[in-house]
DNA sequence: GTGAAAGCGCTAACAA
DNA sequence: TTGTTAGCGCTTTCAC
């Protein structure tokens, strides 16, 4: 390219580097030649010297949960607007992410965002040793010095418990997700704690496993209550919206029950589907945009020289969105 | 790394290159040292010489349509299994993809997959000149020599027309998507053609604009029929499932209609949500896995030396999935 | 099977 | 403001 345009290599480099000292006329001339020759600078080559690729890795669990689609979409939107590229990886839900991380490290990514996967301490230190920041999204790994952002899951669980209590529920069940994940655990814990505080007996708080999926919850509900409808509690808390939706469909379409008349339902996440007519799910909203911004700020991609922030565990509060799967005690508030 | 392990640079390179001539003992020794030193080969550097990055770009429209989430997920699964990385890009639905393509070209991707976006001939030739194959997914650009894979949308539209006709419908409406996209156009055309052939009058085939989204279709249906229920046709064809779902919700929850008793509904895509209880949508299934495989075969990532396949327009047939939004004339067949 | 040396396309001093 | 030079971390001849 340089030769063809009759200028030095450095001139070309400068022409494509905003803020570098080059005469405006020359820059224009080079840009014009580049267009004519269909020249596109090679970012791969430049990152070899700059040590910056402008690539960020996003490692996700299964995209079957629309919540994570929303998360991915938000990360893509933000990063793309900053001129960064996204290397997307999926790993099986809850599986360990070692292989994925090793692979993205080969590509010298500027940062790693990890959702729905385990992170070994070995990988954490490998990343940190190489100066690559890593942030956990909606996940907390006890004992890890990796930083992360998550919703206040415990608090969110409490909010849901309060909503049910206010509506008069006295017996409960939870549909849990990945039993190893802190996200599900925390929501379960907050929910349970609040109920106990309100004087509910442990025996009146049931738990079933929904595997974090629509089908899992659908089948779990059928398995638990279809033949024993007498066991049905007043209220069921789906640890995430997609499971709450599976539960609703099983309850209504397969068992002929009315929601919230026969059983109340609560969810968590506030995915777009939750507000749709068939569901109108009362749920705890996670502020995805805010959480994404927090995650990116922990990565501080713009100041690579800054030391990596370790051990941060940023929690942002969720918010209860009243819709129609729990009778509203007083006034209702759709957003 | 080489120095630290007391071997040559080349030896390290060979140790990490399957099939290169190196003594097994030496390879093991190097691999062991690498592990100890947390060494990870730099793919960025290697691609500078090999001219292969093992990165494939996937450019998508909005992820609000679950169909494209499914598509993305499938591409990720396949490519990841092949040891390739995915650079994900989103562009506004139907917007041109020039900027996105220029950006991925800087990263020397081995191939480009493009869905839901326009592709200029200039970009096509830039890619081809540099030997980068590009494949259109579910999109056909007339006059372009870019290759692509798509469902037989015209045929799918015909299938839906036949289903409605068999169920006795005599008046129709379509909820169209992006008016500039061939995908929507083809489905509309096939549907209309078949109806005309069956003797339906043009006046009995209405069209409304659903903007390819749930909300768009929801509102369009309300706008078209709420105050004029007498205009309601026997059958409504949502050009994609997400719009069919929006239409169903509007019809049932806002207008109190029964499906299929008061109005039949058909969709296209067969997204996972379509089989769920609230919808049980009769739709035309796109064989995503097959289409993805076809797309990847057109890219022939494994034989970069082969000339780029141009002008291919591979069409795979869709299949009608009978569920419950159209009364089945005779026997029904869930997949 | 192995190492030395050249070079991939760029950026970053440095000197002019 | 400009061009020259020396690498960035790897792969690839090419001798050995």
UniProtKB/TrEMBL annotation, chains A, B:
- Carries keyword Transcription? yes
Report the SUPFAM superfamilies cross-referenced here.
Answer: lambda repressor-like DNA-binding domains, Periplasmic binding protein-like I
Which keywords does this Swiss-Prot/TrEMBL entry list? Answer: DNA-binding, Repressor, Transcription, Transcription regulation
UniProt-listed SMART domains:
HTH_LACI (SM00354)
The organism's place on the tree of life at top rank:
Bacteria
Q: Does the keyword DNA-binding apply?
A: yes
Residue ranges occupied by any HTH lacI-type domain in the UniProt entry: 1-50
One Pfam entry name: Peripla_BP_3
Q: Which GO terms describe its molecular function?
A: DNA-binding transcription factor activity; transcription cis-regulatory region binding
Q: Which InterPro entries match?
A: HTH_LacI, LacI/GalR-like_sensor, Lambda_DNA-bd_dom_sf, Peripla_BP_I
Q: What is this protein called?
A: LacI family DNA-binding transcriptional regulator
User: What's the source species' lineage?
Assistant: Bacteria, Pseudomonadati, Pseudomonadota, Alphaproteobacteria, Hyphomicrobiales
